[in-house]
Amino acid sequence: MARRILALDLGTATLRAVIIESTLRSCRVTGFFQQPRDPDRDLAEQVREFCVSYRLHGDTVLSCVPGDMVTHRLLSLPFTQSRQVSQAIPFELETLIPFDIENMVITEQIVQCTETGATVLAIATPKAVFTEYLAMLSAAGVDPEEVSFAPLAALPLVTLSGVDVRGVTALLDVGERQTSVVLLQDGVLCGVRTLNSGCSQDEREVAALVAELQWTLLVLGGNDGKLPARFFMCGTGASLLRLKSELGHHFAAEVVSFQDLRVSAIAEEDHAAQAEFAACLGMGLREALGGALFGVNLRCGQFSPRTQSDAVRYEWRQLGRLAVAGAVAASLAFVVDLYSLNSRYQLLRQEIRRVFTAVLPEVWTVVNEKVQLEDAIAALQQRRRLLRGAVAVSPLDILHQLSTVFPENVPLDLEEWTFEENAVRLRGTTSSFEAAELIKTAAVSLGVFRDVQLKDVKAETGSQKVTFGLQLFFSDEGKERETLESASGTGAL
Fold it and tell me: Which ranges of the chain have pLDDT less than 70?
């Protein structure tokens, strides 16, 4: 029994459909249908009317999304297994596209395999946009099993026709408002792009489209920058013949229209329609021939069409959910006991917080009461040691003695003074790097410190001053006191 395949191309200006009947031994195209699209009307309503008017239905329904609805990248991966490729693609795309990967529908197609790995075409579209697209088709009474990528939909016709694709070739799908460009190198995909311009009757627009095509092909060609020697052109437009002539003249290349291709599944009298219905024919024949031809399907993962086995799995999942609900109910008593313990724990925490705020009212941000209390106690103990004279001299004595030894002819502005148990830390500015060294030498000559270190000496931006840091570590207590008591003289910072 023949299988009826319905392939839909919902273009920006025209709705198109092709019916293909497929058997185990052969397939043939049995109908071409099209209808102008009204941009002011609801698309779902127009698609429903289109299908009802021409009695369009099929055992298998196919559709495609326009190029501006998705983002795509050609990636090189160091392996060729399909499972490894599928697992790696989301991680590769995460750094290449400005979207959250979790909110994207992602599919891929291996373009070429080599000894070192695989070249893969990765395609992604926002889940919200794709959900809206499927909802529109569902409202129109259509549920496609596959949703392809429109710029690549016509590519199977080139393969089935058996034409020569050696060297650099390009496939152009020209519409009224968009043009898709597919670049091939020896028949292998090496670039895809959708242009937001179509083919009109205006000669200037045709010339602008040709110029944009040249720039696009140079970019897609990469470092080689080779322009195609042959173009395969399909689609619609008011000036396809003029565009064909311009392409041949501008690129000095052969331009082959899709209506000149010979595909055995398409009758001789229908070859004239191949250019307009290329996307529908490519999707339908790829499905009829078992999907061996190049193409992608966005209906994957959570968007895969449901089959009978899927329905069975869904019922099992429902039973699993019921089992989980029973387990949750059985553990409710345990949760109640935990709740009482948690209530006591919260009361204890509130009491700890009350004591903490009473002891340290100046602390506004409370993160960990135990740690913060220990830090506060340690700080108080350190202050206590300083107040009791944990070191041999007071901070004022140290400051006085330093002022006596610093050269009076060296300018010094102190910005920071820190007195610790075993060290004094200074930060300030002076006139030069040499002046900073003189200040360090003077501090060493005092004899109070076992070590003097000059830190972070650098010139201020936009100024002739030099900033520096000075760390002075105390020597033993006896020597320190003896030196300070014997020192004399006055000075000023």
Answer: 201, 237-239, 291-292, 307-314, 383-395, 476-493
Tokens of 149: 């990528």
Instruction: Please answer whether residues 445 and 405 qualify as being in contact, where contact means their C-beta atoms are separated by less than 8 angstroms.
Output: yes
Distances (CA, A) of 364 to 349, 358, 359, 361, 453: 17, 12, 12, 7, 37
Ramachandran area for residue 438 (φ above 0: left; ψ -120 to 50: alpha; else beta):
alpha
pLDDT of residue 488: 40
> Percentage of the chain surpassing pLDDT 90?
41
For 212, residues 6+ apart whose C-beta sits below 8 A from its C-beta are 195, 197
- Report the alpha-carbon distance of residue 280 to residue 62 in Å, rounded: 8
* HEC profile of the chain: CCEEEEEEEECCCEEEEEEEEECCCCEEEEEEEEEECCCCCCHHHHHHHHHHHCCCCCCEEEEEECHHHCEEEEEEECCCCHHHHHHHHHHHHHCCCCCCHHHEEEEEEEEEECCCCEEEEEEEEEHHHHHHHHHHHHHCCCCCCEEEEHHHHCHHHHHHHCCCCCCEEEEEEECCCCEEEEEEECCEEEEEEEECCCCCCCHHHHHHHHHHHHHHHHHHCCCCCCCCCEEEEEECCCCHHHHHHHHHHHHCCEEEEHHHCCCCCCCHHHHHHCCCCHHHHHHHHHHHCCCCCCCCCCCCHHHCCCCHHHHHHHHHHHHHHHHHHHHHHHCHHHHHHHHHHHHHHHHHHHHHHHHHHHHCCCCCCCCCHHHHHHHHHHHHHHHHHHHHCCCCCCHHHHHHHHHHHCCCCCCEEEEEEEECCCEEEEEEEECCHHHHHHHHHHHHHCCCEEEEEEEEEEECCCCCCEEEEEEEEECCHHHHHHHHHHCCCCCCC
